[in-house]
Amino acid sequence: MPEAEPTMPETVAAAAPPVPRYTSYPTANHFGTRVTPAVHAGWLAALPAGSALSLYVHVPFCRALCFYCGCTTQAVRRHAPVAAYLDAVAAEAGRVARLLPADHEVRHVHLGGGSPDILTPAEIRALGAMLAERFRIAPAAEIAAEIDPRGFGPETASAFAAIGLTRASIGVQDFDPAVQQAIGRVQGMEETARAVGLLRGHGVRSVNIDLVYGLPHQTEAGVARTLEAVLALAPDRVAAFGYAHLPSRLARQRLIPEAALPDGAARLAQARRIATILAASGYVACGIDHFALPSDALATRKLHRNFQGYTTDDTPVLIGLGASAISRLPQGYAQNAALTREYADMIAAGGLATVRGHAFGSDDLVRAAAIEQVMCDLAFSADGLHARFGRAADAMASIARRIVAQAPADLVVPTADGFRLTAVARPLARLFAARFDAYLLADPAARRHAPAV
Ligand SMILES: C[S@@+](CC[C@H](N)C(=O)[O-])C[C@H]1O[C@@H](n2cnc3c(N)ncnc32)[C@H](O)[C@@H]1O
Ligand code: SF4
């Protein structure tokens, strides 16, 4: 957030520097190479008996690449690389599982990507069986998958049902043909509705739909039309992400027509329109960009932030399997090689595929907690931090006092032990979270993040 006092949310949005999405703290661009396979293995082996875990499996393949996509994925025409990759994931899972305490309990499984639905029905069943064989998965565990609805068929739905899928996250982004042309993703409403129907018909309890604003040719009226079509599908959750345009890092985004991108103020207007329509339709705002029906767990339980965004998952340990996957352990983060070839070579060599990560210092943990408060609660509570971190929370409390002193009253409201953000400040929350980020403050020149709104 700029130090000079802004007057309006639009002014802040227009002048805002790029800031991280804070799906972790420190963010992955601050990971280093000291976290090796041996360090990672030592961390896994030190987990206490009875540890509760979450599993993330990355499937870095899609049938074709959407120009805007910031995920670690690649387009595949043949299926052989996908099958070979699954063998590497099975080998990695076996190695990781042998290091875990025998009585661990997996409470959440997330299949992400890329597009996990690219797996054949037999591969989906085999992946579920492989995980169940190697890990102790709780009978009531949440099993979630990210799904591209284009070409999604009944056999795939039935395979996901067979592995116990409870939650599906489906990509839409925008239904406007001009936007779809500009982003390289043509997707009909009928095929999307069909995928939702198939998943629900197979017992999937919670369906999330992803939208993106800030895409080329998007207007406030256009995103409203897309949202009306999405609401007809009665999703349990909607995620509305601001488009992160980083063409210097992502070659595929150089195909996006930059002249057609909405500016900061237009992005803010689109985000607000989405929030207004969803509120009027009975959805509860969760964090900065998620919405859920009042009956959905995202609206009723405490929010947390992890690499998939907002979650109700409160398990302290996340095990990431597959290329580019990040594990979060009590000692720090460990990330696998991002290139599928390098990942598979490291697994074939007999070890883990860890290439980078970050060992937590005590300052990291208190800052991570402050950032999670702002991102999830849209508020800062010094009492909450003091209860967990003692005197280490003092520095965070003084940052919060500076925020209260500098920010305009239409954005930040003081509370007894901190502040809360107003409804209009919600899309700007990452700017406030960034004030607690020591790495960003130490090296603002290294900012290579998404637009703040
Ligand atoms: C793994 S994909 C979703 C599943 C599936 N592959 C699909 O496309 O339908 C994850 C989601 O990230 C979001 N996303 C991808 N690239 C983005 C970007 N550059 N900026 C903002 N959101 C992005 C999209 O909403 C997308 O649906
Ligand atoms: S948005 Fe989904 S389908 Fe498109 S490239 Fe990204 S992961 Fe693949």
pLDDT < 50 runs, ≥5 residues = 1-7
Identify the overall geometry.
Answer: globular
Number of domains: 2
Largest pleated sheet: 9 strands, mixed
- Termini separation comes to 12 Å
* Helical coverage, percent range: 25-40%
Number of helices: 16
Number of strands: 19
Radius of gyration: 21 Å
Order of strands across the widest beta sheet?
A: 9-10-8-7-6-5-4-1-13
Ligand catalogue: S-adenosylmethionine, iron/sulfur cluster
CATH architecture of the largest domain: Alpha-Beta Horseshoe
CATH class of the largest domain: Alpha Beta
Q: In percent, how much strand structure appears in the residues?
A: 15-25%
Average pLDDT metric: 94
Topology:
Layout: H1 9-15, H2 37-45, E1 52-59, E2 61-62, E3 74-75, H3 80-99, E4 105-113, H4 121-134, E5 137-147, H5 154-162, E6 167-173, H6 177-183, H7 189-201, E7 206-213, H8 220-231, E8 237-242, H9 264-280, E9 284-286, E10 290-292, H10 297-300, E11 304-306, E12 309-311, E13 317-321, E14 326-329, E15 332-336, H11 340-348, E16 354-359, H12 362-377, E17 379-381, H13 382-389, H14 394-406, E18 412-415, E19 418-421, H15 429-433, H16 438-442
Parallel strand pairs: 1-4, 1-13, 2-3, 4-5, 5-6, 6-7, 7-8
Antiparallel strand pairs: 8-10, 9-10, 11-12, 14-15, 15-16, 17-19, 18-19
Bound molecules: S-adenosylmethionine and iron/sulfur cluster.
